[in-house]
């Protein structure tokens, strides 16, 4: 049958965006090919690998097996959305410092899933971190440094005592948010 | 990249709207609950719907409650009612489920990984399509082998000369719900019906559910333990390649009740991921009655009873002899899991 195009009003990274997309497109396809938000990766494309993980009302969700039309009315946050005017998310910083990547393909999904975990449980233990990242595959690192990076973010949170991740950053570390002009 | 073929999308806001859409589109429609099973299957070309009906906005299908009880302070005499769109993540951690059917929480927690369980629903797991190493593959892959009985073809690659599909029920929660004797509530524009989950599945891997194209599963109801019981127990154990993501290579659920002095007065053992229907093992209650769940000799006898009648096929990967040998081991683990959990 011929494709049916819908006009979708989506809430992506804090912005309301109107986007025309075929009814059978996934959220991941709309993010990557309509909104140019290519941080969320298209890996297995069938819900096995976790590279496409985004936050959906604050909870981890696989964008490759979510229909874009089913995202209407929900808050979607991608890896790009974790960057605020104050700078990188603490997890983005600790993944860098811990060297928690090799090829880097799984990293956006890992960081987003770890963000969902720490939002729910800021003092997550190693076991809880492992469980929270169990839907995300990494074929390079063997996971150890990834778990260490999340633990490092937990420690940074405890040291700071208060505030969200952005408040943990030294003021000179601010990184401008990447342009997402194509989104509008 | 796995592209979906074009379809129209509808998003009803109520059960009435959903069943009206099903009545209108029938076999041309495909329901999506959490999407964790249906979406990969759509991407593999296993379904070719004209209309996809997304259930995410049907709020009345979510929630966990006790109904019809009240006499016992802890609600142990009520029926545990779970809306079909309740996520597996909600089921695995809900206090009522943990108190009344801890095995169901264990089974829900064993499905896939945490992100899939945040999306996937109990109703979706009950209605999970059967699986086989020859069918859960891309269209290109299946076409290259001339397809198979389940979709588009006329041969079975598992059973030489086989005339009926042997794809396996692979839904972790269904095994446990069969052990507990749960009931399913099914709506359509024609009305409402209730069916015992043990009668819901049929031995046809091509379509193993007795569900008409216009019907929608709305509730899963777990009965209260019989009044005479001293206590009730349930546990789940799953043979899998890794500790996350995987479907079961063997799925085993146990449920039993004890009398006032702690002896077993009824017991059920269910084995799945073998054939299209979760198998309730015959003779278990008679073997177990009067015994104790912490008696290793009794558990070994029950495990052997299950192993004798469990014949794994090459429909699921993993050596068939190994999967069969693991039956008594996982029966033991299911009993241990049940005894670790508190009971209602």
Please give a quick description of this structure.
The complex is a heterodimer of chains A (184) and B (344). With 184 residues, chain A is of the alpha+beta class. Chain A is built from five helices and five strands.
Account of the protein in words:
The complex is a heterodimer of chains A (184) and B (344). Chain A has 184 residues and is an alpha+beta fold. Chain A folds into two domains: 5-82, Beta-grasp domain (Ubiquitin-like (UB roll), Roll), CATH 3.10.20; 90-173, DNA polymerase, domain 1 (Orthogonal Bundle), CATH 1.10.150.120. Chain A is built from five helices and five strands. Chain A has a five-stranded mixed beta sheet, covered by helices on one side. Chain A is globular, with a radius of gyration of 16 Å. Mean pLDDT of chain A is 89; it is low at 162-184. Chain B has 344 residues and is an alpha+beta fold. Among the domains of chain B are: 59-126 and 168-222, Uridine Diphospho-n-acetylenolpyruvylglucosamine Reductase, domain 3 (2-Layer Sandwich), CATH 3.30.465.10; 231-340, CO dehydrogenase flavoprotein, C-terminal domain (Enolase-like, domain 1), CATH 3.30.390.50. Chain B is built from 13 helices and twelve strands. Chain B has a five-stranded antiparallel beta sheet. Chain B has a four-stranded antiparallel beta sheet with strand order 9-10-11-12. In chain B, strand 11 (264-272) and strand 12 (279-280) form a beta hairpin. Chain B is globular, with a radius of gyration of 20 Å. Chain B starts with 7 loop residues before the first strand and ends with a helix. The model of chain B has no long low-confidence stretch (mean pLDDT 95). The chains are: A alpha+beta (184), B alpha+beta (344). Chain A binds chain B through residues 1-4, 6, 22-26, 42, 45-48, 50, 53, 59-62, 64-67, 69-70, 72-73, 113, 131-132, 134-137, and chain B through 1-2, 4-9, 11, 32, 35-36, 39-40, 43-44, 50, 52, 54, 56-57, 112-116, 118-119, 243-245.
């Amino acid at each position: 049958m011929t494709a049916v195009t819908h006009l979708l009003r989506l809430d992506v990274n804090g912005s309301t965006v109107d986007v025309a997309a075929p009814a059978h497109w996934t959220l991941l396809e709309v993010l990557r090919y309509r909104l140019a938000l290519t941080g969320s990766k298209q890996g297995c494309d069938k819900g096995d690998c976790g590279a496409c993980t985004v936050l959906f009302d604050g909870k981890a969700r696989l964008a490759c097996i979510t229909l874009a039309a089913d995202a209407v009315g929900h808050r979607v946050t991608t890896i790009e959305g974790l960057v605020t005017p104050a700078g990188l998310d603490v997890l983005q910083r600790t993944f860098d410092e811990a060297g928690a990547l090799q090829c880097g393909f799984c990293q956006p999904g890992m960081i987003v899933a770890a963000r969902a975990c720490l939002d729910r449980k800021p003092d997550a233990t190693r076991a809880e971190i492992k469980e929270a990242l169990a839907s995300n595959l990494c074929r390079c690192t063997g996971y150890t440094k990834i778990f260490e990076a999340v633990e490092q973010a937990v420690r940074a949170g405890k040291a700071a005592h208060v505030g969200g991740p952005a408040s943990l950053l030294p003021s000179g570390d601010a990184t401008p948010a990447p342009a997402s002009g194509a989104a509008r | 990249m796995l592209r979906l073929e074009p379809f129209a999308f509808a998003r009803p806001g109520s059960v009435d709207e959903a069943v009206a859409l099903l009545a209108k589109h029938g076999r041309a429609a495909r329901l999506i609950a959490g999407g964790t099973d249906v979406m990969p299957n759509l991407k593999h070309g296993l379904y070719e719907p004209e209309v996809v009906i997304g259930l995410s906005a049907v709020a009345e299908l979510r929630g966990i409650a006790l109904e019809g009880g009240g006499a016992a302070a802890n609600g142990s005499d009520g029926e545990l009612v779970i809306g079909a769109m309740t996520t597996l993540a909600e089921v695995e951690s809900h206090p009522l489920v943990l108190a009344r059917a801890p095995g169901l929480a264990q089974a829900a927690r064993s499905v896939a990984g945490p992100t899939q369980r945040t999306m996937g629903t109990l109703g979706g797991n009950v209605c999970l399509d059967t699986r086989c190493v020859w069918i859960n593959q891309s269209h290109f892959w299946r076409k290259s082998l001339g397809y198979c009985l389940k979709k588009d073809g006329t041969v079975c690659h598992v059973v030489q000369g086989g005339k009926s599909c042997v794809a396996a029920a692979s839904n972790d929660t269904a095994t446990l719900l069969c052990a507990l004797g749960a009931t399913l509530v099914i709506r359509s524009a024609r009305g409402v019906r209730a069916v015992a989950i043990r009668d819901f599945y049929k031995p046809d891997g091509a379509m193993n559910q007795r569900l008409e194209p216009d019907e929608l599963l709305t509730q899963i109801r777990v009965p209260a333990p019989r009044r005479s019981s001293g206590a009730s127990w349930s546990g789940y154990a799953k043979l899998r390649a890794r500790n996350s993501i995987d479907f079961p290579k063997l799925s085993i659920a146990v449920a039993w009740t004890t009398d006032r002095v702690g002896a077993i007065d009824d017991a059920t053992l269910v084995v799945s991921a073998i054939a299209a229907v979760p198998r309730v093992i015959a003779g278990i209650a008679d073997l177990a009655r009067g015994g104790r769940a912490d008696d290793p000799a009794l558990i070994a006898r029950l495990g052997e009873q299950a192993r004798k009648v469990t014949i794994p096929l090459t429909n699921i990967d993993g050596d068939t002899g190994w999967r069969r040998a693991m039956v008594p081991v996982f029966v033991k683990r299911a009993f241990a899991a049940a005894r670790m959990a508190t009971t209602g």
